[in-house]
Write a structure and sequence with these properties.
elongated; 1 helix; 5-stranded antiparallel sheet
């Protein structure tokens, strides 16, 4: 019969997150499976909801809306920074992801949207924000 996943279940899963066009964003396939307790904050709420009722050995694929996943894109998280904030020898190009340090000392990633000799436009939204995300999961173990 097997145990059904519910809030508080400890699970071991393989999963893949991809965009609707098939572009893979994250996958545990070929790596160690993810182990976590539902509700501990490891998985997004929409990912957890998709797991409820599943048992070991089952797999499923669901499309998460931005509200179920990483939220809508926030235009306030797109900033224009002076080119002088970057090292002169640093090659910058659109699409590049760069690690920044916040004023609180936390590391955060930003994607370069556009640049010229004077300014660099950087998007600090999560790369999956504002997008539908396809969540494929295979449940390996449930406690």
């Amino acid at each position: 019969m097997g145990t059904e996943i519910q809030p508080g279940s400890r699970v071991k899963i393989h999963f893949r997150l991809s965009l609707e066009d098939g572009t893979e964003a994250l996958s545990t396939l070929g790596e160690e499976p993810l182990e976590c307790v539902l509700g501990d904050g490891t998985l997004r709420e929409g990912m957890e909801m998709a797991l409820y009722g599943m048992k070991a050995g089952e797999e499923d694929r669901v499309t998460l809306t931005p509200e179920q996943g990483w939220g809508p894109r926030d235009p306030a998280l797109v900033h224009t920074l002076p080119r002088s904030r970057f090292p002169d020898d640093m090659k910058l190009e659109p699409g590049q992801i760069i690690a920044f340090e916040s004023s609180e000392g936390e590391e955060m990633a930003g994607a370069i949207l556009a640049l010229d000799d004077e300014q660099v436009e950087v998007d600090f939204n999560h790369p999956l924000a504002g997008r539908n995300v396809v969540f494929w999961v295979k449940v390996l173990e449930v406690e």
